[in-house]
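Re-run with default settings, no changes from the original entry. Doing this only to confirm the output is reproducible before filing.
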Amino acid sequence: MPPLKDMHRIAAEVIDRRNTALLLLTPDIREQRAYAAQLASALEGFHLDVLDQFRADEALTARLVTFTFDDLLSLIADQKGHRLVVVSGIEFLLGSWLSQGEPNQFKRSLCHQIELWEKQPAFILVTQDDPTFAAYLPDRRRDSVVVLKLSDTLALE
């Protein structure tokens, strides 16, 4: 069994490397938001809960049916005042996106876009564990971590 990964070290690597994003898979959707907030605090990052953003912003809610993954990336890019953003609460968007085409192809495309993200801020996208996400292997840098399961990390301190 490989050693567990330290999220502090992983976050520092994500901030400093060329591709500055990571997909973190969590097993329990009910605890996901709380964990993302705790992770953001532990890593001195900013927690962006997308569901909360939609609830608070009527203009954003009005765009729900046309909101794309590229729009989500733009929302993350708007957080310029932060070095690291921990993003949660995207399951309602994933449900919409996955219903519009072939789900596994979309999931691989999402992972590929995360792998290619080179903008600031760096981000960790926290979402529900999924076998297609978990099986993603980086195309560009085979030695970098693009998808990580929470179960493969150390507890936060």
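The two ends are 22 Å apart (CA to CA). The helical segments are 7-16, 29-42, 50-56, 58-62, 69-77, 91-98, 103-116, 131-134.
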